[in-house]
């Protein structure tokens, strides 16, 4: 079974997907971490976020590896551990542009589809249900209000020792929303047949219970 969870930045996809995968005993695939890893490598190597050809070459030459951990995934690119580095604001500022290029997405999506070809997965990102795994058994589009997304992102950054003004976080989220929805290659959208969940006023366990109910109904219909 494949469960896809898509949605905008700061909606809580990673937290929900990790917890859901753990509760269901399924694998967890954070597609966004793969693009963030490439963005971090590009910053280190001096490859401009607008350099489509250079980024595609870097993506081919430096494969991303996600290794399951109790906290989610250890992320490496070209053998370099970037698990913490990819969550820094400097990566958030460029990852939407880095991930907008067709050549980059072709490399990443091929790797993501290989991973999802076997076993049971909860996969999250911007285009999992709409493009990477359009035949996912359960599709969820997770969203929240702009203010709540900014609050959550700021709290997540603070937990990592990074302090940012909430207004700046909100502006960055809205900028990323515009880039993700407006890109030509696999834009952020609500996948066909997706269940839309607005988690603005929901606790984590409520969101997980809601998705688990959908999973059970799909399993019952298939069985």
Find the structural class using helix and strand composition. alpha/beta
User: CA-to-CA gap between the ends?
Assistant: 13 Å
What's the CATH C level?
A: Alpha Beta
Helix content: 40-55%
Describe the global form: globular
Q: What would you note in describing this structure?
A:
This protein has a single domain, classed as Rossmann fold, CATH 3.40.50. The model has no long low-confidence stretch (mean pLDDT 94). The longest helix has 19 residues. It is of the alpha/beta class and 223 residues long.
Quick description:
Helix content is 52%, strand content 17%. With 223 residues, the protein is α/β, with parallel strands linked by helices. Helix 2 (31-45) packs across helix 4 and helix 3 runs parallel beside helix 5.
Name some characteristics of this structure.
223 residues; alpha/beta; Rossmann fold; 5-stranded parallel sheet; 3-stranded antiparallel sheet; 9 helices
Show the helix and strand layout.
Layout lengths: L1 E5 L6 H12 L2 E4 H15 L6 H10 L2 E6 L2 E6 L2 E2 L7 H10 L3 H15 L4 E5 L2 H5 L5 E6 L2 H14 L6 H17 L12 E4 L5 H19 L1
